Amino acid sequence: MLSAAHIYERVPGVPREERAVTGGGKSAAEIIRKSNLWRDNYNPLRGLTLARLIAIFEAAERGAYAELQLLLRKVEKRYPVLKALKSRRLAALEKLDWDVKVFDRLPAGGTAAMAARQQTFLKGRYELVKNLREAIGQLALAEFRGYAILQKHRYQHGVNDGAVAELYWLEPWCWAKDGYYGDFFYNEDSRIGIGLGSCAPILGEVNRLGGRALPRAAFVVREVESPLYEIAMTAFVNWLMARKDWAAFVEIFGLPNGVVIMPPNIAVGREVDYQAAAEKVADGVSGALPHGSDIKFPTANLRGEAPFEKYCDVQDKDVVLAGTGGLLTMLSLPHGLGHGASQQHAEVFENIAQADALKVSEVLQTDFDRVELAAEFPGEPVCVYFELAAKDNKDVSTLADTVVKLESAGLQSDAAEISALTGLKLKRVTPQPLNLNS
Description:
- With 438 residues, the protein is mostly helical.
- It has a three-stranded antiparallel β-sheet with strand order 3-2-6.
- The protein has 15 helices and nine strands.
- It folds into three domains: 4-228 and 349-376, no CATH class; 232-333, no CATH class; 393-438, no CATH class.
C-alpha cells in the first residue's frame, strides 16, 4: 500500500510541515507493514448476514468505504460467478488497442501543425507509462467497486524527467468520502466508520484529494454512479446461506437412512447381537442380517426435493444479468467453436469491452490528456485525444472490397487515409509495364 508519506513526497511545492512524518526512527516501509497488520488478520466474512450487509451499504452511502471495500475484496476472491465475470470483462478489454487521434473538427484556434505536435507528444507520454494496460483494467473495475483512484508517479531526472512513469492504483479500502457528493480523503489505516462529517476532523485537510497536499491533477479518478457491488454482495450472502443449508441437507439426506425390521422369534440373549448387526447395515456398513429381516429407507424420496441448487442459480443469474447489462442471463460453458453459446458470449463481452473502453477513454482524456498537454503546450486548444478501441476486422474487409471496386471504376483512393482507417501501413505502387520480350 502507498503511504501518505509516499503520496506527499511526490507532490512538489508542499511544505514539509504538511507532509506525513514518520516517528520513532522507523522507515516508511515499517510503518506501512504495521498499519497493514490489522487488515491481514481481519476477515469481514465472519458473521456476515444480510442485516450487517445493509448496514455496510448505508455506511458507504455516507462515504465510509473501508469496511465495504475490504469485504468486497474477499467476495471477489470467493464468489465464483463474480470472479468469472470480472475475468471475462478484463480479458475482453485487454484485446483492445489504444491510439492518440486528432479531432475530426479542430477547436477554435487549432491548426494541423499544432495537432501533429500534440499527437506526437501525447502518444510518447502514454508509451512511457509502464503499467498502462494494468491501469486501464483498474479503471474498468470501477464498474464493480464504485470508484478507482490512480496516482501519477513521474520519472525523476534523466531524459524522461517529469513524464508519467506509472499510474499507481491506490487501494479502494484506503479512501473515505465526505458524503455522496463530497471530496475523497486518503484513509491510510482503513479506519472503519469515517465518512460524512468526520473526514475533515479526523483525517485532516492534508489528506483531502483536491487540496494543496494532494492536487487533483496528480490523480486519475473514475467514479461510477451505480456500481455492481450491492447486487453482487447481496447475491453472495444469499448464495453462502444456500450452500451452507445445502451442505447440511446432503450430510443428513445424502445417504439414505435405513430402518431394519428384525425377524420374529429372536433367540433369548441374542437381541444385542442382532441389534448391532442391524445398526451397521442401517448406517451403510457391509454386514449380514438374519433370514426374515427387512430394511426400509424412509428418506430416500426426499433427496430429489432440495431447492438449493435452483436458489444458488438465481443468485448467479442476478449478478451476470447486472454485470452484462442484461445481455446474458447465465455464464455457461461454451459449446462448439465459432457458434452457439461460445459465439454469443464472445460477442456480448466484446460489446461490453467497447462500452468500458469508451468510459475509460473519457476519464483518461480528462485527467491525463488535458493535464499533460496543458503543461507542454500552455494556452493551446486541445486538438487530440486518447482512444481505447478495437479495429473491426469486418469493417476492414468491407473497406478493402470498396477500395478495389472504386479503383476498378477509375477512381483513385488516398493511401494515407486508407492506412489510417485500416491500421495497415500502405503505399501506392506504380504498376510496371509487362515485358513481352522476356
